[in-house]
Amino acid sequence: MDARKPDLWPAPHTDGPVRAAVRLPGSKSITNRALVLAALSDGPSVVHRALRSRDTELMGSALTELGAPVDSAGEDWKVTPGRLHGPATIDCGLAGTVMRFVPPVAALADGPVVFDGDPHARTRPMGQVLRGLRGLGVTVDDEGRGLLPFTVDGVGGARGGTVTIDASASSQFVSALLLAGARYDAGVDIHHDGKPMPSLPHIDMTVEQLRLHGVEVDDSEPNRWRVQPGLVRATDVHVEPDLSNAAPFVAAAMVTGGRVLVRDWPRSTTQAGDVLREIVTRMGGTAELGDDGLTVTGPQTLHGLDIDLHDVGELTPAVAATCLFAESPSHLRGISHIRGHETDRIAALATEFNALGGHVTETDDGLTVRPTPLDGGPFRTYADHRMAHAAVIVGLVVPGVRVENIGTTSKTFPDFAGAWSAFVG
User: Which domains does the chain have, with CATH numbers?
Assistant: First the structure.
């Protein structure tokens, strides 16, 4: 085996339509927001059906390290708030929610808190979160880099107030400051000043979770969010299935002309993954929401797609992989910000698809996908779970696709490889 590719997993291939059902694990985005708010609340609470993955376990460990123990022994995680304290060291791994959501919490700790993570995490943008914290009266030492590693000098509280940041690279910058805002002396008044912000549904999710915990939030003005100071009410949260993780399963129906049931799809949700229903329809399939969940039926012929994915950039790898098998070219736009995700997803997708014989070109803000016959071969994931999703979709149609480091999917989906193999089989 090539030493440069030590973990090449043969992606399951099928010559016929996939007809199957899947039950997804809980949403990472909801789980980690709920854990943060539980740690800041006025009493113990339970996060029901929490996702158990690397990202959520890192969040649980971070909050426990700060003095709010998270008992993750069962499917339902119990959080007991306590006095937040330092000194502490937080391992962020490659989790954007940990490296961005926890520093505002650390500002409330009594002592210094050091943040660091995986090597690639040190390249992910953090400057606007740190700028926002400084504007709210928090002392942060990052040696002027705006990147990991850095230290938050907690003094047991934070002034809060009004601050302006540029969140055009990630909506997590805003969510991070909102989540802890009610515990700051003056609350927080966050203004976004810059290019249109990506992934707005994730801010809607943050606001929804804050209100669920009794926090007063005013989001009536564009690009402005105000959180009033006050208690965060202890509230048990039931975590929805992770709809972004539905993308490869939905794609399986689309690229094979099959029929897939995604169980327990919520009737109403703030999750970005709900846009999959629209994408399915635009590409010629059908998406029917019923009592059991969402049933997706793939078409005989896939239509090319021209779409702005600005608010749902995390779906790009799976959508781009699906577009490889359409009858006409596709144009995916509005996603320049995903160059700053776990890897430069635009460059990585073009590189890996073209290595299999594809005709995919990068644009200023996305990808153009021109369908062409593909060959099997290795597919690098760059330690990015969404890249692995793209790879397994291609492998359904193209024999001989071998996925490097399929284990990276544990970031949001425990044993994805086993679940995918059983689903296809």
Answer: 8-25+241-424 (3.65.10.10), 28-238 (3.65.10.10)
